[in-house]
């Protein structure tokens, strides 16, 4: 998918407030390795991981995955096209929290069929950086 800094951020495609990629997830994607710009909340990390799925940024997904649950490698399905994200509910996961729970629905199309994935994800924060831990369901 062609996304530039001025495009609506993939994680905001369904929102009325279509913040640009540069205003939303791009800084997180570009600065994860240095740790200079990190998502402040579990929801921001969740959004940035969704955008990374859209953009095929496997490295970012692995870097933001907690080491206890991180797969050795990640192969992204190129036939799957992510079309939008709805954040259903966020429990905890604020800037001062060490754990967060985010419930979301991600919409996709594959082989001309539309589908959606509903998940409740848990996140942990260590040394100021949020990590994806696992899915409750
Ligand atoms: Zn975003």
TrEMBL record:
<dbReference type="InterPro" id="IPR023006">
    <property type="entry name" value="YchJ-like"/>
</dbReference>
<protein>
    <recommendedName>
        <fullName>UPF0225 protein C1H84_13100</fullName>
    </recommendedName>
</protein>
<dbReference type="Pfam" id="PF17775">
    <property type="entry name" value="YchJ_M-like"/>
</dbReference>
<dbReference type="InterPro" id="IPR048469">
    <property type="entry name" value="YchJ-like_M"/>
</dbReference>
<feature type="domain" description="YchJ-like middle NTF2-like">
    <location>
        <begin position="41"/>
        <end position="135"/>
    </location>
</feature>
<comment type="similarity">
    <text>Belongs to the UPF0225 family.</text>
</comment>
<dbReference type="InterPro" id="IPR032710">
    <property type="entry name" value="NTF2-like_dom_sf"/>
</dbReference>
């Amino acid at each position: 998918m062609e996304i530039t800094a001025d495009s609506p951020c993939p994680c905001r495609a369904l929102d009325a407030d279509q913040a640009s990629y540069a205003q939303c997830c791009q800084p997180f994607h570009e600065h994860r390795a240095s740790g200079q710009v990190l998502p402040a909340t579990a929801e921001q990390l969740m959004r940035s991981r969704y955008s990374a799925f859209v953009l095929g940024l496997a490295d970012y997904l692995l870097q933001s995955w907690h080491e206890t649950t991180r797969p050795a490698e990640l192969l992204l399905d190129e036939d799957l096209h992510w079309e939008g994200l709805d954040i259903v509910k966020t429990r905890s996961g604020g800037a001062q929290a060490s754990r967060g729970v985010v419930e979301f629905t991600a919409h996709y199309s594959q082989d001309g069929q539309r589908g959606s994935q509903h998940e409740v994800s848990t996140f942990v924060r260590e040394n100021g950086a949020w990590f994806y831990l696992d899915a409750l369901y």
